[in-house]
UniProtKB/TrEMBL annotation:
It comes from the Bacteria. This is EAL domain-containing protein. Residues 1-257 form the EAL domain.
């Protein structure tokens, strides 16, 4: 309960919830092609908190809806700053995690429409990451909201792909733009033959369905090489950069072997 009221307060201030950004890197050119926004809470007494410590409370209390809006707004403002400072001159995929609670929030689409206009966001800039479990509760509402988002030029990424219990039925039922291959597979690419086979199958599926792909959790040069050989060219993971606050982001071409 203490954490809940503290989170409520944090949402009203500007310096407690901090967006961290983790790059997506092009496997061949080393260029930064996208960013995932991940929330951190700089708690005045408890120190820096990871999402796992407070997202459950945010979900249970319903505060997650405000938290997600807070993060979307913060990321859009940051993108504008980067564009004004000349750090971002080419299209960049800005990813934000979206909890399923937003699908039940009747004001969400109107709110986002307003934000897209206000920031003059070009279609294909903003991606919302959704997990399969987010689609389970109210599938029809989710489908309606997703269709409205796509009309706005907001894209949808299926997060943690391959770990849910019915991944393929979700691809069939909903229209996504991008798949994020779960790091459970990526971490074993280059060491276990089965993981290679699964990643190959996911890439073939994505190509057939016209979906973009990001491999998450890339930690080694070997994984980078393997993924690149397989034709998976957008990579995210500690090998390139950990999530970091905006001012610590390294915009230089990330070194590749
Ligand atoms: O950064 P880290 O690995 O600790 O993130 C853990 C999880 O928290 C991720 O799976 C991510 O989906 C979730 N998460 C991080 N930031 C946000 C956010 O702003 N909104 C929502 N809904 N989930 C987030
Ligand atoms: O569920 P989601 O995929 O959104 O979670 C992203 C989480 O993965 C973040 O908490 C982030 O800190 C973490 N992460 C990012 N890159 C790596 C990596 O290379 N290895 C591991 N183990 N975790 C990573
Ligand atoms: Na995510
Ligand atoms: Mn993921």
């Amino acid at each position: 309960l203490a954490l809940e009221s503290e989170l409520r307060r944090a949402l009203e201030e500007q310096d407690q919830l901090i967006p961290y950004y983790q790059p997506f890197v092009h496997a061949i050119t080393g260029e930064l092609v996208g960013l995932e926004t991940l929330v951190r809470w700089r708690h005045p007494e408890r120190g820096m908190l990871a999402p796992a410590t407070f997202l459950p409370v945010a979900e249970e209390s319903g505060l997650i809806v405000r938290l997600d809006r807070y993060m979307i707004e913060a990321a859009c403002r940051q993108l504008t700053r980067w564009q004004l400072s000349g750090q971002v001159t080419t299209p960049l995929a800005l990813h934000i995690n979206l909890s399923s609670s937003n699908f039940h929030d009747p004001g969400f689409v109107a709110w986002l429409t307003q934000l897209v206009r206000q920031h003059d966001l070009q279609p294909g800039t903003l991606y919302l990451e959704i997990t399969e479990s987010a689609l389970i509760d109210e599938p029809d509402t989710a489908a309606m909201v997703m269709a409205a988002l796509r009309k706005l030029g907001v894209r949808l990424a299926l997060d943690d792909f391959g770990t849910g219990y019915s991944a393929l039925s979700y691809l069939h039922r909903y229209r996504f733009d991008k798949l994020k291959i779960d790091r459970a597979f990526v971490s074993e690419v280059d060491s276990k033959g089965e993981a290679d086979a699964i990643v190959r199958a996911i890439l073939a599926l994505a190509e057939a369905l016209g979906l973009e792909v990001v491999a998450e959790g890339v930690e080694t040069e070997g994984q980078l090489r393997r993924l690149s050989e397989m034709g998976c060219h957008t990579l995210q993971g500690f090998y390139f950069a950990a999530p970091a606050p905006a001012e610590q982001l390294d915009w230089s071409r990330l070194a590749l072997p």
